[in-house]
């Protein structure tokens, strides 16, 4: 019984720590979105609600699993109340001069780390703003504007899905992409390498990568875009702020699908968005129904 109570205390303490870390992450996300950008603020609120709901669900499942493992332990509420009621402000009865000096050094170190982190977030926010301005100008010249796509690991596939005139699921796009890559291993393997070391990867590693495309929310790359251009038999244009646009699948004589790649986005790296005409009345070319 004592072991189960100790395990429960550790789990609840971890839950509290994870909630605190999530709120810190959320504050960082909020600092990247201008207050006057209503569209992005609305998306931010949705992302925050999703993150909080996912954590709440995860914690609830862990508590339920614990209760299933220890069905006779009825101390869940009391342990939770005990932890919530702990006086975290209590200090040891006596600290030596060396201990106080050490604590001051640690406090100064934490303050410095916080200042560096804040400066980093401000710099990232500046990069995001500059990137947004450049992308808006590039798209405006093409009579286009950005169409926001959720940052959920499927953004590249959702951006493709957004521009197709026929109905297709993200799961179907992922499956068709992986199938094409498996059937044409020799076309893709020379360009597939270990992202950490840059070393060439084996055929088995590549096939495992294809499995992840279907089974997980793994981010897409130029390899998957190349496969998608063949699957859809349509060129795919990728617009970036600080580099020339990339067109994949130029051998297909059709109007390309256009994606926007944002390097500084959502505090998690790259992100793909879709586009839409500036003039709501304009009509684009119709893609063929492939599914």
Question: Can you summarize this structure?
Answer:
The chain has 291 residues and is an alpha+beta fold. The chain has helices at 2-31, 38-69, 76-84, 97-141, 155-163, 170-183, 185-188, 203-215, 222-232, and strands at 144-147, 236-239, 246-248, 257-262, 271-277.
General description of the model:
With 291 residues, the chain is α+β, with helices and mostly antiparallel strands. It folds into two domains: 2-88; 124-277, Cathepsin B, Chain A. 57% of the residues lie in helices and 8% in strands. It has helices at 2-31, 38-69, 76-84, 97-141, 155-163, 170-183, 185-188, 203-215, 222-232, and strands spanning 144-147, 236-239, 246-248, 257-262, 271-277. A five-stranded mixed sheet has the order 1-5-4-2-3. Strand 2 and strand 3 form a beta hairpin. Helix 1 runs antiparallel to helix 2 (38-69), helix 6 (170-183) runs antiparallel to helix 8 and helix 6 (170-183) crosses helix 9 (222-232). The N and C termini lie far apart (58 Å). Residues 83-93 and 281-291 have low confidence and may be disordered. It comes from Physeter macrocephalus (Sperm whale). Residues 144-278 form the OTU domain. It catalyses: Thiol-dependent hydrolysis of ester, thioester, amide, peptide and isopeptide bonds formed by the C-terminal Gly of ubiquitin (a 76-residue protein attached to proteins as an intracellular targeting signal). One of its GO terms (molecular function) is cysteine-type deubiquitinase activity.
